[in-house]
Amino acid sequence: MSETVTGNEPAAPEPAVTGERADLLEALAKQRHFLRFTTRDLTDEQAGRRTTASELCLGGLIKHVTAVERAWARFVLDGPSAMPDFTAMTDADRARRTDEFRMLPGETLAGVLADYAEVARRTDELVVTLPDLDVAHPLPKAPWSEPGARWSARRVLMHVIAETAQHAGHADIIRESLDGAKSMG
After folding, report:
1. In 10 A of CB 169, how many CB atoms?
2. How far apart are CA 44 and CA 59, in angstroms?
3. Residue 180: left if φ>0, alpha if ψ -120 to 50, beta else—which one?
4. What is the pLDDT of residues 117-140, one digit of tens each?
């Protein structure tokens, strides 16, 4: 007896993630939560406001972390060609990168958060489905990259977790300067 497939069947459950991959995903989810939590109950104007000597704002930090996570996920899949040559950046390239750290006219906090959620979903899917976390590529050209260094997918994920945590800390300071709200404590 054969079954008729109509396309309306529920999707097969996702395979359970265990071990190292579960640990990496849990660590990344925790840091993402802290970063997103700093924007709770804010208006678009507040999310774009600078509150310290830094050029950073909450919406801009989330845009930056989104771009970083997106770029490193592409790196895991495609190697250094997925990222720019940071040693050959033009003034226009630097201006575009600077815009990554601020809310631009027409951008909304809801839109920035939705983009971050989509990138997070794709990264999580990559962590679950990547055949081997040991796959490695040479780092892209950048003044901060050690010549000849290679990073595995595992090392990239640890970097994304660290970068997200670092910026969640920045965001906590910016939010506290904005209205006294804190992520913890």
Report:
1. 15
2. 8
3. left
4. 999 999 999 999 999 999 999 998
Q: Which of 156, 185, 114 is nearest to 24 (CA)?
A: 156
Task: Convert the pLDDT of each residue in 76-97 to its tens digit.
Answer: 999 999 988 888 888 998 888 8
Burial of 130 (0-12, 13-18, 19+ CB in 10 A): middle
154 and 131 Cβ atoms separated by less than 8 Å: no
Inter-residue contact 101 to 46 (CB < 8 Å) = no
Residues 6+ apart with CB under 8 A from 32: 116, 120, 164
| 136 phi and psi angles, rounded to 5 deg | -135, 150
